Amino acid sequence: MAINEMTGVCKNYRLGKTEVKALSDVTVSIEEGDFISIAGPSGSGKTTMLNMLGCLDKPTSGSIAFMKNNINEMKPGQLADIRNAHIGFVFQSFNLIPVLTAFENVEFPLILQKNKNVEERAKHVNEILDEVGIGELKHRRPSDMSGGQQQRVAIARALVKNPKLVLADEPTANLDSKTGENILKLMLEINKSHKTTFVFSTHDPMVMNFAKRLIKLHDGQIASDEKR
Q: What global pTM score does this model have?
């Protein structure tokens, strides 16, 4: 089943008097259970494509359907509801709230959803933290954790909503190679066990090697789309 379908998508930005074409006629289908790396040089359109897939932006032309819903026609509040319910985000800088513990950071998306009571939230958060291997660190704040531990918290926060799609922008960029490899193995295990769809934007050859599908961008267009 297609989770996200981009059809003839173009995205232009205006910088002063110059119009920049970030994406040009991109057509791609993201399927349930995919484990995808989007690769390409700086300026190739990777981050723009990730933003489109994450319902953070709309195309200049073309169409994007998330779970068969046309996002072109949606208002900002509707797009926020989709992100809150169905999409998890993992960032290279972790983006954890520094004054909150690991437990509180992971719990926060569930509080925003308002669909679980306190006991249910606590049970679910503890289960996710255990699954990513940091249950014993749940009372620590980000400043008291290593980069790899913080990234595990960020992954747990992305997964706690049981999302259809997890988008990761350069998830290994601030990690050493061994820690980065462990993080990718963890994500691959979650992909296999939960059928969660992962899409990475990356320069890292290691991330590309882990991918089951590699999409290469060049000058805003898809240069190749290879399944492994």
A: 0.91
